[in-house]
Amino acid sequence: MDNEEVLAFIVKAETKLKHSKALFEIEGYADSVSLSYYSMFLCAKALLIKKECNVPKTHQGLIQLFSLKYVHEDEFRYNVYKYLTNAQSDREDADYSAIDSIGEDLAKKRINQAEEFLKETKKFL
User: How does 21-52 read in b/e, with b if 16+ C-beta sit within 10 Å?
Assistant: First the structure.
């Protein structure tokens, strides 16, 4: 395991979350949701690297492997894991939809969930 790489991804996840909060403050809700998702995604990636997994190249592949290695085989809380899968769908809407339908409430919810995901992740470091 490359502990330096794991910690670098955690720092990157913390930075994404910080930027998500900053965008929220200036009403950049769609971009805030996207960065909240990436914060969770990077946490999941860090934990897979910690277990010396061959990290999949796709988002869906990474999420599925994370579910197997941490939710099913370890004790990562399922309800917190679901934040990642739900945020993935919102991130796709935020990044690829022509019409911006992401509002303040959803952006705040995703920030709170990303904070909880990061906190849960740190239990496994």
Answer: bebbeeebbbbbbbbbbbbbbbbbbbbbbbbe
What is the rounded distance in angstroms from the CA atom of residue 84 to the CA atom of residue 57? 17
The tokens describing 14, both together, are 């913390």
Contact 35, 19 (CB under 8 A): yes
52-68, pLDDT tens digit by residue? 999 999 999 999 999 99
Q: Where are the beta strands (DSSP E) in 1-125?
A: none
Domain-wise residue ranges, the chain = 3-122
Confidence of residue 100 (pLDDT cuts 50, 70, 90): confident
Predicted TM-score (pTM) of the model is 0.96
Which of the listed CATH numbers 3.40.190.10, 1.20.120.330, 3.40.640.10, 3.40.50.450 matches domain 3-122?
Answer: 1.20.120.330
Cβ neighbours around 121 below 10 Å, total: 23
- Record the tokens describing residue 112, joined without a space: 């709170």
